[in-house]
């Protein structure tokens, strides 16, 4: 990584290669020009008050402190006495020091009182123990230096203008204290530390009580000297080589190690380029036993709070806790822009058998870039992005970013209403959006100023966002995810994305998003063989490889992997207020033989082709989301006839399975059948009439959404209007009539962007919708504007007419009037609201006007009026219709005692309601 402009290369440091993001990630960034100090390059300036407080302990002012004067006099007197007398005096002095230490808690220093007030409540036992240890004073031959009110960090502040603190001069430090050499580090321990394979570096590094005092050991590559600041004195550690420094300090026999800091020198001369810093290896674990227990059982529903990088105050010190699940790694280290991507000095500890590695790094702030340097079982190293990262660099850069949200939500009213909603009995009209290309170049916040207003004007109740989780290749549209917990950084920060969701909610628009738990890409910096083994993917290569997409399938049978995905579903709904998840590629998850030939798959224990592990995972995910997030919906993109996709998980179906528990299922069958009918010339449609009526055979077997999605307008499938036969007028007329049929058919509806104004070209993520078609300067702009006006009216009439949505899942809410008029290309049916109020929907998919077309209707309605006609002149149609109310006649038709005789416009859909 290129050194920051405010960093300073250190002269003549021992040569050691510095790993860069360019070498580890393939990014085009330069390595530092010379050896550099890992922590000295970009430290924030020291607070003047804290610096003064620390420095005063070692200065010799004009008027000497009484304590120091007394100490010197005592020393002179002791020098004149015999060895026995000196030993007696020393013993008395030690006793006096211990007595003072016992009395000192009675009066707390202002700094300690302030620190206690700043410490947040509710810490775990680990933090309490750490704070208790920090309060125990240590007896020493020098007065204890005043505690600093704010800790000084040795990590980059990660924003422009941050400067490292002024180096401590040797004359400013407390007087040096003689340190005895420590026992040599075991060669095996030394090798494991330096090669990143030590499972418990805290047992070797830091400070530890031992016979004769406290043993201090630090690992600081590139440093020329390391000193310990403890109890008002400075003790120089011995250089053990390879960046290791150690020493035995004869401190008083107290049960806890006294608080201390490190003074690390990178310059040649004493006082040159010295950095005072906290030692990461003096802290107890910052993650609780309950977290580890739940992770091990795969039941941590708030996993993002336990794993990843989390800024926090631990034992009174601000920093970031890093945790990662890598159970088969020999060792894990933290590398980032705060240590020039060399994690040698920051090995993590393994927390028992949980597979979790942890390290608290003081001073690392939100905005810092990081990855995990993992030592695989074969001893090789791999630099990996954090699977739990809540923010990432902008692709193609791949580092994770320490993130802490500061967003204040303003959608309380929406969230309160959401919890009480019953989505199946409410209007649901969805506008599907690919955010990066809807208006290319806009940020989340810029989109928030345009998208909500546009969607609200058109009357859609919801937007559905194609995947927003981070993905390296834009051409995947977000369906090959590497950062499951991070909104893509292409358009801004996570808080910027929150702002977009918030603004949509404030305009009364729900937010659904595509969620992709079926598979993930093979990028060697992401999830694939994360710790050197098949961790997130299945260990059986035949089960791991997805045969269609060149990706890896999740191992749904592993509890930790299921936990990772279930918690991820909850995360989006709780942290980003997402109102629903459309789960992608469900069919590929449910079947072991999906896209596989005989011999390429192994049956389940019952001899079937069902993936029982995936079934269990989907049931757990749906049950958890619906329990924790009332009002949220889940929808499955499932293209087969799997029984019970939207059935409750505790209700067993004919196949012996409980339901999958989804709220909705995309009706892929309706989409394919109806489009197959529409692409035919009208003269041929009578031979395919059943393709429009077949959907009613199974319409109430699941809770359906009718989708015209992005998948239907790409890769040579043509846009919706371009699928239609005939000339330009007929294509638009067919397009409008089809939308009218879709909005009146039982089920909710979804339309992909660009189809609302009859875009003629296929969608491309490179440039998005062809907005220029609506430019008044374009000669045919009125044609496209007319289709958009129809979509607006469809939505507004739809949301104001309960008969079109209130009984979508109730067979009593629908009745055929005419479903067999194949020669006429006519379909007519009734929809009913919960109170019985009817609506008549009639579609004429032939290019001829049909006058006085007799339709049987409920006799209790005396007259009917036209509320929507897709052939209206303002939409670009011919203007044929029924401007006057239609009186109900006592003429039997279609098995009913009464009927009406409307005029059916050509290639049009008409809606009639009681006058």
TrEMBL record:
The keyword Glycosyltransferase applies. It holds the Pfam family CBM_48. It comes from the Bacteria. The keyword Kinase does not apply. Keywords: Carbohydrate metabolism, Glycogen biosynthesis, Glycogen metabolism, Glycosyltransferase, Transferase. InterPro entries: A-amylase/branching_C, GH, GH13_cat_dom, GlgB, GlgB_N, GlgB_N_E_set_prok, Glyco_hydro_13_N, Glyco_hydro_b. Residues 61-84, 100-110 have a biased composition (Basic residues). Pathway: Glycan biosynthesis; glycogen biosynthesis. Gene3D superfamilies: Glycosidases, Golgi alpha-mannosidase II, Immunoglobulins. Residues 1-194 are annotated as: Disordered. Residues 25-60, 85-99, 111-124, 131-147 have a biased composition (Low complexity). The active site is at residues 584, 637. Residues 432-792 form the Glycosyl hydrolase family 13 catalytic domain. Its EC number is 2.4.1.18. It is an enzyme of class 2 (transferase). It catalyses: Transfers a segment of a (1->4)-alpha-D-glucan chain to a primary hydroxy group in a similar glucan chain. Belongs to the glycosyl hydrolase 13 family. GlgB subfamily. Monomer. Catalyzes the formation of the alpha-1,6-glucosidic linkages in glycogen by scission of a 1,4-alpha-linked oligosaccharide from growing alpha-1,4-glucan chains and the subsequent attachment of the oligosaccharide to the alpha-1,6 position. This is 1,4-alpha-glucan branching enzyme GlgB. The lineage of its organism: Bacteria, Bacillati, Actinomycetota, Actinomycetes, Kitasatosporales. The gene is glgB.
């Amino acid at each position: 990584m290129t050194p920051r402009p405010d960093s300073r290369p250190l002269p003549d440091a021992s040569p050691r290669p510095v790993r860069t993001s360019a070498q580890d990630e393939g990014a085009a960034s330069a390595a530092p020009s010379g050896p550099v100090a890992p922590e000295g390059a970009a430290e924030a300036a020291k607070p003047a008050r804290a610096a003064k407080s620390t420095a005063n302990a070692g200065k010799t002012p004009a008027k000497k402190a009484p304590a120091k004067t007394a100490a010197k006099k005592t020393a002179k007197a002791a020098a004149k006495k015999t060895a026995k007398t000196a030993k007696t005096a020393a013993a008395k002095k030690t006793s006096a020091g211990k007595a003072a230490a016992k009395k000192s808690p009675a009066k707390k220093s202002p700094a300690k009182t302030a620190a206690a007030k700043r410490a947040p409540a509710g810490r775990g036992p680990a933090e309490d123990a750490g704070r208790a240890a920090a309060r125990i004073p240590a007896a020493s031959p020098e007065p204890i230096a005043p505690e600093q009110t704010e800790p000084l960090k040795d990590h980059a502040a990660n924003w422009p203008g941050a400067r490292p603190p002024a180096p401590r001069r040797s004359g400013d430090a407390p007087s040096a204290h003689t340190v005895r050499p420590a026992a040599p580090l075991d060669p095996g321990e030394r090798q494991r530390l330096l090669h990143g394979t030590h499972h418990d570096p805290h047992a070797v590094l830091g400070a530890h009580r031992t016979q004769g005092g406290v043993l201090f050991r630090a690992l600081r590559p590139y440093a020329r000297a390391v000193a310990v600041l403890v109890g008002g004195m400075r003790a120089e550690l011995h250089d053990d080589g390879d960046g290791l420094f150690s020493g035995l300090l004869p401190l008083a026999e107290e049960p806890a190690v006294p608080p201390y800091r490190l003074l690390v020198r990178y310059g040649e001369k004493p006082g040159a380029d010295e950095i005072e810093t906290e030692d990461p290896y003096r802290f107890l674990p910052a993650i609780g036993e309950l977290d580890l227990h739940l992770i091990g059982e795969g039941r941590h529903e708030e996993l993002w709070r336990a794993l990843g990088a989390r800024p926090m105050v631990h034992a009174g010190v601000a920093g970031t806790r890093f945790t990662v699940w890598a159970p088969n790694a020999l060792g894990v280290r933290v590398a980032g822009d705060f240590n020039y991507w060399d994690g040698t000095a920051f090995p993590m500890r393994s927390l028992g058998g949980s597979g979790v590695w942890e390290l608290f790094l003081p001073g690392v702030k939100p905005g810092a870039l990081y990855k995990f340097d993992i030592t695989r079982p074969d001893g090789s190293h791999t630099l990996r992005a954090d699977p739990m990262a809540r923010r990432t660099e902008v692709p193609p850069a791949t580092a994770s970013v320490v993130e802490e949200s500061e967003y204040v939500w303003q959608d309380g009213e929406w969230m309160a209403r959401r919890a009480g909603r019953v989505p199946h009995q409410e209007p649901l009209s969805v506008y599907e959006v690919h955010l990066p290309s809807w208006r290319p170049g806009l940020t989340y916040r810029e989109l928030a100023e345009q998208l909500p207003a546009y969607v609200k004007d058109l009357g859609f109740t919801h937007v559905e966002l194609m995947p927003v989780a981070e993905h390296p290749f834009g051409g995947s549209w977000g369906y090959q995810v590497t950062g499951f917990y991070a909104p893509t950084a292409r358009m801004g920060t996570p808080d910027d994305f929150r702002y977009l969701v918030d603004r949509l909610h404030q305009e009364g628009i729900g937010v659904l998003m595509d969620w992709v738990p079926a598979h993930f890409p093979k990028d060697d910096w992401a999830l694939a063989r994360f710790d050197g083994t098949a961790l997130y993917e299945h260990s059986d290569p035949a089960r791991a490889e997805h045969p269609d997409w060149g990706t890896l399938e999740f191992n749904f049978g592993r509890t930790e992997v299921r936990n990772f995905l279930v918690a991820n579903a909850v995360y989006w709904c709780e942290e980003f207020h997402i109102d629903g998840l459309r789960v992608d590629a469900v069919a590929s998850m449910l079947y072991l033989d999906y896209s596989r030939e005989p011999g390429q798959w192994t049956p389940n224990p019952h001899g079937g082709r069902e993936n029982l592990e995936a079934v269990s995972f989907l049931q757990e995910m749906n049950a958890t989301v619906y329990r924790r997030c009332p009002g949220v919906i889940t929808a499955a993109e499932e293209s087969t006839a799997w029984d019970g996709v939207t059935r409750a998980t505790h209700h067993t179906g004919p196949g012996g399975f409980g339901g999958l528990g989804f709220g909705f299922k995309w009706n892929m069958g309706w989409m394919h059948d109806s489009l197959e009918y529409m692409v035919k010339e009208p003269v041929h449609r009578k031979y395919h009439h059943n393709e429009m009526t077949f959907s009613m055979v199974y319409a109430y077997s699941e809770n359906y959404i009718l989708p015209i999605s992005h998948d239907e307008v790409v890769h040579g499938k043509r846009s919706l209007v371009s699928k239609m036969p005939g000339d330009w007028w007929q294509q638009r007329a067919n397009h409008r009539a089809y939308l009218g049929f879709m909005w009146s058919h039982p089920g909710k509806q979804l339309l992909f962007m660009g189809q609302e104004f009859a875009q003629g070209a296929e969608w491309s993520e490179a440039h998005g919708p062809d907005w220029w078609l609506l430019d008044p300067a374009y000669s045919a702009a009125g044609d496209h504007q007319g289709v958009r006006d129809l979509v607006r009216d469809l939505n507004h009439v739809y949301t104001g007419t309960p008969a079109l949505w209130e009984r979508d899942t109730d067979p009593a809410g629908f009745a055929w009037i005419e479903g067999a008029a194949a020669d006429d290309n006519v379909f007519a049916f009734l929809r009913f609201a919960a109170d019985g109020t009817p609506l008549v929907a009639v579609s004429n998919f032939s290019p001829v006007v049909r006058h006085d077309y007799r339709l049987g209707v409920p006799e209790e309605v005396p007259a009917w009026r036209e509320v929507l006609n897709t052939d209206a002149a303002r939409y670009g149609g011919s203007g044929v219709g029924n401007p006057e109310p239609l009186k109900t006649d006592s003429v039997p038709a279609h098995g009913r005692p009464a009927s009406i005789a409307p005029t059916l416009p050509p290639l049009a859909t008409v809606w009639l309601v009681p006058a």
